[in-house]
Amino acid sequence: MVITKSILLALAALSLTLPVSAHQDGVTHHQNYEGQKPLQDHQHHNDGMPVQEAKRVAIIGAGSAGSSAAHYLRRFHTNTTNAPPINITIYERNAYIGGRSTTVNAHGKASYPIELGASIFVSMNENLVNAAKEFDLTVSSTSSTRPKTVRDSVGVFNGEEMVFVQPYSESKTGKWWSLAKLLYQYGPLAPIRTKRLTDETVGRFLNMYREPLFPFSSLGEAAESVGLLEATGVTGEQFLMAKGVGNGKFVTELMQASTRVNYGQNLGLIHGLETMVCMAAEGAVSVEGGNWQIFEGMVKSSGASVHLNTSVTGITEKKTAAEGDKKVWTITSQKHGDQSVVEKDFDTVIIASPYQYLDLTHPPTTLQKAPDKIPYVALHVTLFTSRRPLDPAYFNLDPASTVPEAVLTTLNVTEQSSETFTRGEGASAVGKVGFFSISTLRQIYTEEHGEEFVYKVFSSEAFGQDRIRKILGVKDEEEAGVTWVFRHLWNAYPYLYPRVTFEDIKLGEGMYYTAGIESFISTMETSSLMGMNVARLALDEVLGVEGKVKAKL
Ligand SMILES: Cc1cc2nc3c(=O)[nH]c(=O)nc-3n(C[C@H](O)[C@H](O)[C@H](O)COP(=O)(O)OP(=O)(O)OC[C@H]3O[C@@H](n4cnc5c(N)ncnc54)[C@H](O)[C@@H]3O)c2cc1C
């Protein structure tokens, strides 16, 4: 039972959003975030001691990493005695908080928000789970809004046939049938070993949240000390072979379907650790109305001064005579639509975006080593509404059946034997099937269009109207009845090639970098963990003396 639950949740829930309640207006991103009031400097007297000068911290990016850095910096600071006041400033290029966690509204209706980026997190994601509780957000299971007309929860399609179909298991009997089917199809060995390996891997990873490992100044060393480099250093394929899970159909069909829907990569490319992360989906949930609310809550709780619609264009080092020849970082920023450029000095800078996407015109020149450019998966997300259900014939299913809620994909048998596909990127990774996943998210009702399905497609190339018509089984535009389409191209996550070293966390004196963790594990939670980690490292640096910190979560 446990095995079934884990594996099926992994498949059913991964990246497939079932958003539930109201939020925003318009079809682009959610409403502009109301900038925070600038923080009051806490320049109090400590028992007659002179007023301490506030330390100025700039955070570039208000996604999971930047928001978490601000939130935990404030929390650690509050729990620290004799620390100078901290003044946090967040710069965010977008009009909203959340980065790759953001929603759009089907038909522009606030009652139908759809996750455009990161859609689920799981029960062991303690930062996100705790923050959702702290900010009183409602989380719900990813199956809570499933369309009632669909009979199966997950299918795995290889472009020729549906190689696995998991029916909804609402009754106890249903569950047992599902287990019987799973074991019948794949045998007990691979699922049981996978479950054990997943638990073991997750257990090792969780040590990174706690002393003595936390805070870690080198991701590679932290990963080594918990024994995870063994998993990051090889491909998923190699790791599963070495651990006795093998390379049978359970791996090439179910597990690969998971790595494809989550990361757009097959098992011959993606490393072993991220492969196991894809199987650790117990308790998959999302925040009603959008996961971005977690990050908005974090930013608010930090008391930071927030500059939305503002791009940082330069980070330069200067020594100021006025400040006793002390090194400071000058941040140059520009609010969109505003011609003027603003310069401000900071003691600490936290870069909370992949370095290559900062687009700095004046990058820091004094760093020993700037972070490398990492190839990211270009992922096309297509959202659309139609009254038509997906066509069973397109998926080679019995015409009387319904297409599963989540159609994941894998390579066909011929492609599976070719490294061009198993190690491929983009269109080579996708194979004949032509997309990574198609999910029927929910049914909605509007006066203009009546009852409709909302669909989400992940693909490596644009998923045009012709392809939409094909999966709906019609030739004619009018028949397809597509009433709303929203397309977005993400630099979604890194290609997770095997590796045992990661980008530096501390780039220089007073400068920290979060995005190196994405080549280790790329999720909202791990970005949050790194945000929390750099918050602690930065505060330790400000305090100057180790052991002076009483910071506890
Ligand atoms: C389609 C998709 C599905 C995903 N599914 C999941 C999932 O189900 N679960 C999960 O946990 N993860 C998922 N992920 C991954 C997850 O979204 C990321 O790992 C995580 O959100 C990264 O957070 P971050 O803060 O590190 O980066 P980001 O969210 O990218 O935040 C960086 C921020 O920095 C800002 N910025 C960059 N440069 C500048 C500048 N010069 N000046 C000012 N601001 C700047 C950007 O605008 C951005 O807001 C998914 C991602 C995508 C794209």
Task: Indicate the topology.
Layout: H1 2-13, E1 55-60, H2 64-78, E2 86-91, E3 103-105, E4 113-115, H3 126-134, E5 139-141, E6 152-157, E7 162-167, H4 172-186, H5 189-206, H6 219-225, H7 229-232, H8 236-242, H9 249-263, H10 272-279, E8 285-287, H11 292-302, E9 305-307, E10 310-320, E11 326-335, E12 341-346, E13 348-351, E14 376-386, E15 406-409, H12 413-416, H13 419-422, H14 427-430, E16 437-446, E17 450-459, H15 465-472, H16 477-480, E18 482-494, E19 506-508, E20 511-513, H17 524-543
Parallel strand pairs: 1-2, 1-13, 2-9, 6-15, 13-20
Antiparallel strand pairs: 3-4, 5-8, 6-7, 10-11, 11-12, 14-17, 14-18, 15-16, 16-17, 19-20
Helix pairs in contact: 2-11, 2-17, 5-10, 8-10, 9-10
The protein binds flavin-adenine dinucleotide (FAD).
Which labels suit this protein?
single chain, 553 residues, alpha/beta, FAD/NAD(P)-binding domain, Polyamine Oxidase, Chain A, domain 2, 2 domains, seven-stranded mixed sheet, six-stranded mixed sheet, 20 strands, 30% helix, 22% strand, globular, disordered N terminus, binds flavin-adenine dinucleotide
